[in-house]
Amino acid sequence: VVYIDLTENPERFTGYAGASAARVWKAIYEENCFNIVHRMTEGCETCNNIMNLGQPKLKTGKPVNPFAQVPKNKAQLNQFLNDLAEESDGGEDSDDEVCLEKRVYYRLISGLHSSISIHICDEWFNRETGVWEPNLDCFVNRIGSHPERLQNVYFTYALLLRAVNKMGPYLEHYPFKTGSDKEDAVVRHQVQDLIKSTTSCPPTFDEKSMFNGPEAQILKQEFRDHFRNVSRIMDCVGCEKCRLWGKLQTVGLGTALKVLFSYEDNTLDPIENPDLFERSEIVALFNTFNRLSESLHAIQKFRTIYMKQMAPKEISGYKRILNHIEPFVKKSLSQLKSWNIPVPRYIESLVTDAFTN
Question: Which end of the chain is more exposed for a tag (fewer CB within 10 A), N or C?
Answer without folding.
Answer: N
